[in-house]
Write a structure and sequence with these properties.
The chain contains 8 helices and 15 strands.
């Protein structure tokens, strides 16, 4: 089910949408992340009650966290999967927003869509039918492409991160990028890589104002380029979103109707289990919470039999999960 808005919600939710869109390619604006100080050797002897044992100390889940999964959905050429309930959409961009109600801060965890992990599979009637190992992005292909696909993606992300709880999810189709881009009058970038195979205008080092589908191509294209890894595409996305964020800020300062126009333009592309009131409360918190930093997984990207595959460093991943989602057990 698509998220429904009435006009009374436009203004209060519009600002949140800008944050999410500047988050849903947040790759732009955040180029560094915190070092993992204070976390050392990880023990394999975790407790059965949800605690994690690390450097001789037990950690428990931080119950002050609210975790929101942000998904940028893209379409691909579907292949027949006769024994599964599937669609032709994949999660091209995945990011977790961690809101800590106690410290009044938020933290961002970006997930590589090529991560090889356990993915829940849905049967012909939409029921769970086991798991497969594949790219994290493909978790969204199971289901109708709506809330059930978002839930399936959330379960795959949770499994990847040692069972952390995900409270809500917000998905925006990547088609919204071109619409937002043109609403701000285009976004100017210095082209980072040779993309003349996509457009003659995208020669490396050229300064280009991206409009319409060219903006979407700049942040989405990777196949057919000299370096087709997701990592280089993420670098372009970081750059683009940094500039988009500036444009959104400038536009909103000069036009107090801009957020409503933006929301009206992309609301059809938005799917979430949040109500409009929950989204507005989320924005209220984001506007006053302090930035706790940006994190990403360590690991290795390789060329698989058909696609790029990213294998996280499991020890580093586990330490990061403890750092972001757990607190020391005081008992």
């Amino acid at each position: 089910m698509k998220l429904k808005f009435n006009r009374n919600h436009f203004k209060m939710v519009g600002s949140l949408l800008a944050v999410i869109l500047a988050a849903i390619l947040l790759l732009l604006y955040l180029s560094n992340w915190e070092s993992r100080h204070g976390i050392v050797d990880v023990s394999d002897n975790d407790a059965d009650d949800g605690r994690m044992l690390l450097d001789g100390l037990y950690y428990i889940p931080n119950d002050h966290l609210e975790v929101i999964l942000l998904i940028g959905v893209d379409k691909f050429e579907s292949q027949e999967q006769e024994e599964s309930y599937n669609n032709n959409q994949q999660a091209d961009f995945l990011m977790l927003l961690l809101m800590d109600r106690e410290t009044k801060s938020y933290t961002v965890l970006h997930l590589n869509r090529d991560t090889m992990t356990e993915i829940p599979v849905l049967g012909v009637r939409g029921e769970k039918a086991g798991t497969i190992t594949g790219q994290l992005a493909l978790a969204h292909t199971y289901g109708s492409g709506g809330l059930d696909s978002c839930r399936n993606t959330a379960e795959a992300v949770s499994n990847l991160l040692y069972g952390v709880e995900i409270d809500h999810y917000i998905a925006v189709t990547m088609d919204a990028v071109a619409k937002i881009n043109d609403l701000v009058g285009g976004v100017t970038v210095t082209v980072l890589n040779d993309m003349t195979s996509v457009s003659p205008a995208l020669s490396e080092g050229a300064t280009v104002t991206l409009t319409g589908d060219l903006a979407l191509a700049y942040v989405r294209t990777r196949y057919g380029l000299e370096d087709s890894s997701n990592l280089q595409r993420m670098e372009r996305q970081r750059q683009y979103l940094s500039e988009l964020r500036k444009c959104i800020s400038e536009k909103s300062m000069s036009d107090d109707t801009f957020f409503m126009e933006m929301l009206e333009a992309v609301s059809a592309y938005l799917t979430s289990d949040c109500t409009a009131n929950q989204l507005s409360l989320l924005y209220d918190r984001l506007s006053v919470y302090k930035d706790g930093g940006f994190h990403s997984m360590e690991g290795e990207a390789i060329v698989g039999e058909e696609f790029m595959e990213f294998y996280p460093d499991q020890e580093a991943l586990k330490r990061m999960v403890v750092k972001l989602f757990y607190v020391v057990n005081a008992q």
